[in-house]
Design a protein that fits this description.
Blueprint: H1 2-11, H2 17-28, H3 34-46, H4 51-75, E1 79-80, E2 83-84, H5 86-112, H6 116-142, H7 147-171, H8 177-200, H9 214-217, H10 223-229, H11 234-245, H12 251-263, H13 266-285, H14 292-306
Antiparallel strand pairs: 1-2
Helix pairs in contact: 1-4, 3-4, 3-7, 3-14, 4-5, 4-6, 4-7, 6-7, 7-8, 8-13, 8-14, 10-12, 10-13, 13-14
């Protein structure tokens, strides 16, 4: 990862002074870098890490960072990972342009090195992420979302990128389609578990790392609430939906919704589904030979479901 960070910094360097200052700011406030780590571990499990692996990890980080910057603009968010977001410091126009620049850098990194296979994997992920976000926005307007639709949304908006990380890691070291597909499916299951865990934070206590009630405020129906709604009669269902529609960060309304979800088994059901996806991921992981990479990957998957933020 130390070597990767050096290569990544070189990949975003520019002679435009303003842009370079922003790139330095982005690099300094890096997050956990789970996605590039997934690329390296997948490569190590599938073969021998190569320069192509480093390019795949950089591509993933460039695309992921670009989507986060654009998300902050769309959500009008002024904070990211405990730091000011780009749009808070440099306004929306510059933030959007920086996101575009990072997307272009990722494309060029692949094109210049003829990594068209990696580019194809990542482009599919970006397409699915956009479709997932738009589908969620469409469904949030009517507040009519069932579990199969919810799972489809998180598969596209979250799991697709994590799946692409694992597929790119494998593809950077082997052309065996079975190995690449196994790693892709492994990543998809990990991504599903990761997003369900993230959605559970909305019903957690203070200090979980994600402000409670964010999804409710944005009128997003996630698995805990979807399951709870499926267990009540029409009258109570209507009452809950009405509360969500009129939700305005009122603490009493939030407490009512949290109690409703917990009382009707929404939390425990979501946790159960999360573990199911984690176990599916482990089943695929065990198909690969024992190694330090596989052990680390196992620990990383456990972290995604045990994390507190």
């Amino acid at each position: 990862m130390s070597e990767f960070e050096h290569k990544f910094q070189n990949s975003v360097y520019t002679r435009v002074a303003l842009l370079n200052r922003i790139m330095i700011y982005i690099v300094k406030r890096k997050g956990k870098q789970i996605r590039p780590i997934l690329v390296f571990l997948s490569a190590g499990i599938s073969g021998e890490i190569s320069e192509k692996t480093f390019r795949g990890a950089s591509l993933v980080e460039l695309l992921h960072t670009a989507t986060l910057i654009h998300d902050d603009v769309v959500d009008d968010s002024f904070e990211r990972r405990g730091f000011f977001s780009l749009n808070a410091l440099w306004k929306n126009k510059i933030a959007v342009l920086v996101g575009d620049y990072l997307l272009a850098r990722g494309l060029l990194l692949s094109v210049d090195n003829q990594d068209f296979d990696l580019l194809g994997i990542s482009s599919t992920a970006v397409k699915q992420m956009s479709e997932g976000e738009l589908l969620q926005l469409e469904k949030s307007r009517t507040l009519n979302l069932q579990e199969p639709e919810y799972l489809d949304i998180i598969r596209m908006k979250t799991a697709s990128l994590i799946a692409s990380c694992c597929a790119m890691g494998a593809k950077s070291v082997t052309d065996d389609p079975v190995v690449v597909e196994n790693m892709r499916m492994f990543g998809e299951y990990v991504g599903m578990a990761f997003q369900i865990k993230d959605d559970l934070f909305d019903y957690g206590d203070e200090g979980t790392g994600k402000p409670s009630g964010v999804d409710i405020k944005e009128k997003k129906l996630t698995l805990p609430l979807i399951y709870a709604l499926s267990k009540v009669d029409r009258a109570e269902h209507k009452k809950v939906i009405k509360t969500i529609k009129g939700y305005d960060s009122d603490k009493n309304k939030f407490n009512y919704l949290v109690d409703f979800v917990k009382t009707n088994g929404g939390i425990s059901y979501a946790e159960k589904r999360m573990v199911e996806y984690q176990d599916k991921a482990f089943d695929i992981l065990m198909k690969f030979g024992s190694s330090a990479y596989r052990e680390s990957m196992h620990d990383l998957v456990v972290y995604t479901t045990k994390r507190e933020k």
